[in-house]
Amino acid sequence: MTRDTAIDVLDGLDQRLVAALQCDGRLSVERAARVLDVGVRTVRRRWARLREDGTLSVVVPPPVPDLAAVTLLRVRVLRGRLATVAAALAARDDVPMVDVSATGDEISAVAVTGHAPGERLVLEQLPRSSAVTSVTAAAVLHVFRDAYGWRHDVLTAPERAALTPGRPAVPAGELDDVDRRLLSLLAPDARSPAAALAAASGLPDSTVRRRLAALAARGRLATHVLIDARRLGYAVDANLWMRVPPEQLDAAGRALAAHPAVHGALATTGAANLHAAVWLPDLAALYAFVTRDLTGLGIRSVETVLVGEAVKRPGARARYRWS
C-alpha cells in the first residue's frame, strides 16, 4: 500500500472493529456485534468497506522461523543509494521487514538466515556493495513480542477476552497435506469462507468445515491483521536500541512487551542487547515513553531511530511514509 498523502485516521468504531479482528481473524460478524454492542449490519458493512478499500486485510502468517536463524540488521548507506539497497533487501524472501530511517542514511531489516552454505548470502553480499558503508548484525536471542502479537489498545479487557479464542483444546500435532493445502489457500485471505475454500481445494464443504474447526482447536489457525498503523492514529514509528544489565534484561523485555505502544521487543546479541519497535501518536508521546515509561527498567542507554518509510513489514510489502 502506498499512502504519501494526508492520512485519514479511522473513527473509533472502525478502530474497535480492527482490534476485534486482531483477536480472531475469522471472528464472525454476529459475535463481534454481540461483544461490541453494535448492530450486525453495521459490523458487516464496515468490515466489508475496510477490506474492499484496502485499509486492512487478514492473512495467515508464514511459519515462525527458528530463533537461531533470525538476525537484526542495521545498514548504513550512502545518500542517493538508499532506495536501491532497500528495494533489493525487500525483494528477498528471507527478509520479512525493511525500514528506512527518517534521516535517510540507515536501513533496519530483519533477515531469516539459515545455517547451510549459501543461506547467509544476504549478510555476505551487503558489505560488498559500494553503496553500503557499514553493517551491524545482531542475532535474536529471545522474542518478548513480535508484530503478530501486537494489539491495538482500544478494547476493554473483558471485550478482548470474549473475542479471543481459548487455549488449544487438543495437542497441536502434525499438519498433513490437506491441512497445509487449506492454510496455503487461507494465507492471502484468512476470512475466506468454507465454500470458497472447498471450491478452490476440490474438497467437500463438510470436510473443509471440519478441518478448519480442527485446526482452530489445535491452535494451528493463526491469523494476522495487516493495516497501516497511521490509520489507527500512530504518526510516529521508532526503533529503540537499548543496553540493559544481564540480570535485568528479561524483566525489562517483559515489561516492554506488555506496553501497548510496543509492537516488537527482542533480546539480542551485541552492545545494544534489547530492541523495541514502538508506534505512538506523536513526538511528545515518544518523549514521554523514553523519559517516563523506560524508567525503572534498568536501562543504561537508549538510541532512538525514527522510521521515515516502511518498505516491507511481516506478511506484506507495505510501502508508506511516516514523515
Describe this entry's structure for a reader.
- A hairpin with a 4-residue loop joins strand 3 (97-101) and strand 4.
- With 323 residues, this protein is α+β, with helices and mostly antiparallel strands.
- Strands 2-4-3-10-7-9-8-5 form an eight-stranded antiparallel barrel. A two-stranded antiparallel sheet has the order 1-6.
- The protein is built from eleven helices and eleven strands.
- Helix 2 (29-36) crosses helix 3 (40-52) and helix 8 packs across helix 9 (205-217).
- It has helices at 12-23, 29-36, 40-52, 82-90, 121-125, 157-163, 177-186, 194-201, 205-217, 246-257, 283-293, and strands spanning 56-59, 70-77, 97-101, 106-112, 132-145, 224-227, 236-243, 262-268, 274-280, 301-312, 320-321.
Helix count from the secondary structure assignment: 11
The profile of the biggest β sheet is: 8 strands, antiparallel, barrel
The percent of residues in helical segments reads 25-40%
- Order of strands in the sheet with most strands: 2-4-3-10-7-9-8-5
CA distance, first residue to last residue: 16 Å
**Radius of gyration, whole Å:** 21 Å
Q: Which runs of at least 5 residues are low in confidence (pLDDT < 50)? A: 1-5, 115-119
Based on the structure, what is the oligomeric state of the protein chains?
single chain
Strand content: 15-25%
Number of strands: 11
| Helix/strand order | HHHEEHEEHEHHHHEEHEEHEE
Look at the helices and sheets and give the structural class.
alpha+beta
GO biological process, one term: response to amino acid
InterPro entries: AsnC-type_HTH_dom, Dimeric_a/b-barrel, Tscrpt_reg_AsnC-like, Tscrpt_reg_AsnC/Lrp_C, WH-like_DNA-bd_sf, WH_DNA-bd_sf
Keywords: DNA-binding, Transcription, Transcription regulation
GO cellular component, one term: cytosol
